[in-house]
Amino acid sequence: MPHRNLLRTSSPVLVGRSEELQVLVSTVPRRSTVVMIEGEAGIGKTRLVDELLAHPELARLKVLVGHCQHLREPFPYGAVIEALRSLAGTKLHTISPVAGALRPLLPELADLLPPQPEPIGDPHAERHRTLRATREVLAAIGPAVLVVEDLQWADDGTRQLLRFLMADPPPNLSVVITYRREDLAGHLPLGTAYRPPDHVAGILLQLRPLDVDAVRVLATAILEHEPVSEEFADRLHDRTAGIPFVVEELLRSLHGTAGRLPDEVEVPVLLRDAFADRLAGLPELAHRVVHAAAVLGVPAGVEQLSVVAAIDPEHAELALIQLARAGVLHETRPNQYGFRHVLAQQAVYDSLEGPARRQLHLSAIAALRDTEPPPLVQLAEHSRRAGRRTDWLRYGEEAADRATEVGDPAVATGLLQQLLAEPDLPTSEVDRLATKLGSVAYAGLDQHDPVTTLERVLSDHRLSTAARGEVRLLLGRLMVRQNGGRIAEARVTIGQAVDELAERPDLAARGAALLGTTFIGDTPLAEQLPWLERVEEYLAGCDNLEVRMSLLANVLGSRLAIGEPDVLSKLSTLPATVESPAERRQLARTRCNLADSCTTIGHFGKARDFLTSGVRLAAEAGSPFVVSTARSTEVRLDWYTGNWSGLAERATRLLAEYRDLLPVASELCLILGFLAITRGEWPAAAEYLGRTGVDSPQDSITPIAIGGFAGLARMWLAQDDLVAASANVEHGLQLVRHKGIWVWAADLAPVAVSTFLATGRAHEAVALVEEFATGIAGRDAPLAHAALSSCRGELSDDGRAHYRDAEAAYRALDAVYLAALASERADTRDLPALADWYDVLGATRDAARCRYDLRSRGTPAPSRRGRRGYGLELSPREQDVARLVSQGLTNREIAEVLFLSPRTVEQHVAKVLRKLGAVSRAELGRVTG
Question: Which H or E run includes 612?
């Protein structure tokens, strides 16, 4: 029994795609599969999907199909929600309460879904809950396949939802998407590179035009096995470029004869003529209805079609029957009629004379404008095509505003770009539309290539100087936060914007505040302080609270981050509450910036307080970028304060979500690298730390890049690669000296001293400690001062007193891991307890080092969990070995990480392989991964 009404083409057999179909049929019903079908319009993507869904092998699967529409109204997740609507009446298996988050989007499934959960308040968390809810529903329907057609027209929400599903689909679900690469923004179907997880089959099918032989087979099938000569097939292939849909429509127009083909003409003209032939035998009413359908451009019901065609509904229904029989229109959804293919719709549309086309667009406006809610995108398009310029500008801007409100930046961007393409717009309208477009591009976290959008806006010669400066400032701010190395370029862009904003001193001050932000790029502090002073001069006369909070977020955060001692005392002047959403956004940003600065200098308790209040305010105000930065700050704060349970998983999840945001992604990579070092996972540590900005400090978040150099130096020093450790120390110190901010060397200075001493450069170690001490003198930077005690302990012949000072200082900050390291260096007498604490924390390499130290002293190292047999379970040590094998380490490297002999590691590996039933290290990596 078919799962849906398949729109059978005029060929009774599938031609030229048998291999592709076999690949799909042999995989999709048997395991979770992600299928991406790519090809130009008319190439046969939908036909291939239809044949797959009709195949008996898929009879047991629940099929859900959603379509992305070219002329669509703003609706996040639209295609997937359309697909889920078909679940009405379906019995769901056990389902999580989180699925109730779909109730507002799917009232049709109210009887299936749990109650709607309470609002979270955090926009990103709300969105993530919607993604999880969708996955829960799909996991509860049994074996299923989700099809999303024409992804090139998808909204950003649909792309993000599909990325989420395809990254880890439920084991019962396969996903099939179709798209035209040439119509994709950025030429990536999901907005970013995609690679299926190891447990999911991944299939990419790139459909090409048919060759001459396949065209001949197709023609024979369509012409009911009339003989088709090689010459005819060759000419047919030349005329149609081997595009199946064009072949079918052209042959259908020949009424069963293979004797004659039109002269050499372009494919769209062939289609137009083919449809003209097919309509020739139909009555006038049918012509009027099909013309109405072509002008509407989206599937429509009888009422709308009758209004646009200017006939009564009864005659429209009769015409639809005739058009369906002729294969011109099809019932795409219940009571919705449209063309089988966009090429067919375009062919009929192009056949209309200009005046007739205009009149039909005017009729479409009349049919649509009283609809609730009004389809603003369609009204805008019909007004534009009808030449109603005033209405086009009004509807277009209203539609863009609506798209922005509901979180569909792709629609808003497209409309605003179209509006700006209108000639003879007055400067005031150009300025308004351009700044709206700039704001949409800047605010949309998921939008494709917003930098290109803003650069295109700046090329519009009609912009006023002030509006150009406003858009350029948005572009510069966007460059700063993008993960692609453009901070140096951004500073030039922002500097230009400040010059252009002479008439907007508030915006010029915001640009100056960004140029003065101390932790962005490698610009020396001495060059940034004058910009901060310029902002402070403006603040002295500014009474706009939103502007003040926006500027203070940069000024206070920057000055606190460099350890200026009087900043914290000034924070009491910050308001606890504000009135407007815009003010709340800026107060949230201020508090989250302060949390980040407190984390950098070591005021961890204050950082936690600022984060708590800042995230709450950001959630209330709907500020997703502020929430994203706060989440990465929290990860770094949890690293320092020892809240490591689930930290790596949380950081990895956030990194997947915010991979394109430089401040967030680089900070998350730093902590993931630090965590990998504590477990001896050298390949992972090197990969993560390499993404902290160490390759291009001029385009980095400077404290993070300095931390990256520190982490790499620690990693190489632990592996006795003194050359690599020295190189990273030198690069890190060069950045600190160039920047002129020594309070950011709290992680770097201790490992630099260790590296200098290990390479016989004791005099350089002494000089560095003095330079470090001078650089942080008088600065409010408790983390750096604790690190200074650790450095002095390293230098001293008997450094235990200095290490005890460092331990006490770290403990006072609640930096428990750093305190434990200092305690270890202070020659603590309780190494067994310290080793057990490292194990609980997850620092398995540190725990192994303590136990090795105990063995070296002749003191037995007690078992971590007592003496017992583990049977077929892995012991704690075997778990460590299995994890490191899965990271690709050799037995010798594992021995060095865990302070064991290679022979002992070899025995552990053999036990792990036996217990897990793996026959090789590669298979073990797949099992444990």
Answer: helix 604-621
